[in-house]
Design brief:
274 residues; alpha/beta; Rossmann fold; ProC C-terminal domain-like fold; 8 strands; 14% strand; elongated
Length: 274
């Protein structure tokens, strides 16, 4: 990875998503690039401790420390307390990446100043296996070289899409940020339905997991649309047809439920910004 200026990287917060970013970064950057982490709870993986420096608070960072990139991976409700401690790095040329849901670029500009280069990004939990889809939006202060560095960094956990309209990040959060939870619920429901229809626990769980993951891979690799793939396995009067009759009853019930769920998540993302 060609991180701009080869200066240090700073990760603020090392929970699940912060850890995923860290695990993606470590194998892909030169050993000469220093990584520092600020997290009151330390880092979760012992094997990383020889590769990075860990601090409990920002005030413990060395006075001569000048990172090129600062990644905020803390919960949205913690940001107002956390962010001001990093304003001093704006003048030294650092740029900031936030992965906090519902937290606008303006929030960071108000605290860090109008000249702060900020990228608001929304990854999702498949980052833990380097299969994230991340959508990111830069502010006007982000340079082309900083944008390129951010792309390289975020690609260590999966695919990255950059957009210019920040408002789109609210429905993005609802679809891809929250979306894995919807799929996990579907796996739970399929497993439970298998149990209710006589399958043993292990078989029901395996069938549900493999069916969902296999269908996802097929949809990714096929040249056909999901709608066509659904139709391909739906024979009139067959078992799939009967199941879909239930799922689409009451004015496309499942589609309506999913639409309402995504709208609720989008609305909540916007509320978090207020």
């Amino acid at each position: 990875m060609n991180i701009e200026t080869q200066r240090p990287l700073l990760l603020v917060g090392c929970g699940k998503m912060g850890s995923a970013i860290l695990s993606g970064l470590l194998p892909q950057i030169p050993s000469s690039v220093c990584i520092k982490v600020v997290d009151p709870n330390g880092i979760p993986t012992q094997t990383w401790k020889d590769s990075i420096s860990v601090f409990k608070e920002a005030k413990e960072l060395p006075s001569n420390f000048e990172p090129s990139i600062i990644i905020f991976a803390v919960k949205p409700q913690q940001l107002r307390k956390v962010v001001p401690s990093y304003a001093r790095f704006v003048e030294s040329g650092a740029f900031f990446i936030s992965i906090a849901a519902g937290t606008t670029i303006k929030f960071f500009e108000d605290i860090l100043g109008p000249n702060a280069a900020v990228i608001r990004a929304m990854p999702n939990t498949p980052a833990l296996i380097k299969q994230a889809i991340t959508v990111a939006c830069p502010n006007a202060a982000v340079s082309n070289s900083q944008l390129a560095s951010a792309k390289l960094l975020l690609e260590t956990i999966g695919e990255v899409i950059f957009i210019s309209d920040e408002d789109l990040l609210d429905p993005v959060t609802a679809i891809s940020g929250s979306g894995p939870a919807y799929i996990f619920l579907m796996i739970e429901c399929l497993t439970q339905a298998g149990l209710e229809n006589g399958l043993p626990q292990k078989l029901a769980s395996t069938l549900a997991l493999k069916t969902v993951s296999g269908a996802g891979l097929l949809a990714l690799e096929s040249s056909e649309t999901p709608e066509q793939l659904r139709q391909n396995v739906t024979s009139p009067g067959g078992t799939t047809f009967e199941a879909l009759q239930v799922l689409t009853a009451n004015n496309n019930g499942l589609k309506r439920l999913i639409s309402d769920a995504v709208s609720a998540a989008t609305r909540r993302s916007r509320e978090l910004a207020d």
